[in-house]
Amino acid sequence: xxxxxxxxVLHVCMGNxxxxxxxxxxxxxxxxxxxPDAADQLVRSVSAGTGGxxxxxxxxxxxxxxxxxxxxxxxxxxxxxxxxxxxxxxxLILTATADQYDYVLALRPEAAAxxxxxxxxxRLLAAVDASTLPAGGEKPEQVHERGTAIVAAVHRLRGDDxxxxxxxxxxxxxxxxxxxxxxxxxxxxATVPFATLLLP
Length: 200
Hints:
The chain has eight helices and four strands, in the order E-H-H-E-H-H-E-H-E-H-H-H. The chain is α/β, with parallel strands linked by helices. The protein has one domain (about 5-200): Response regulator (Rossmann fold, 3-Layer(aba) Sandwich). A four-stranded parallel beta sheet has the order 2-1-3-4, sandwiched between helices.
């Protein structure tokens, strides 16, 4: 039997140097906290931007400071422009704003059921009944099955409701450390509960 790929989460923002890299690396850290020895085999956290202005650049310095202050790593990060194949291989797509959600769906309408604004996902995730999910475990296929079930549950809870304006993550680009700290908190409000539910 072919090895099961890690459960893949794609984070999307505009330039891929502030919000989505913070989300990428903070989710990776939250997963590592729960599965220190197998994090990379279980969950793949990646990111991209709707625009390619910063392609190949490292993370914005205040974003990088936030990631490191929270126990994550900013090493080796390079900004990428979003492509359709990134969306195809993602099990969950989290966008910083509703505009980027629309951008993703314009590229891949069939990704709608696994695409959410980050704040929307965090808000709905809190209502998922953990007792209805597959047991989960330490094997990639168990994590993949549970992750897919979580995404389906959040999609059902969303129904036909649009994201709320408050679900958007403000763009901290060019603003001070205080703004980046608030964005980091909002990202962790989604990534930590998700990692906790995914890896019980």
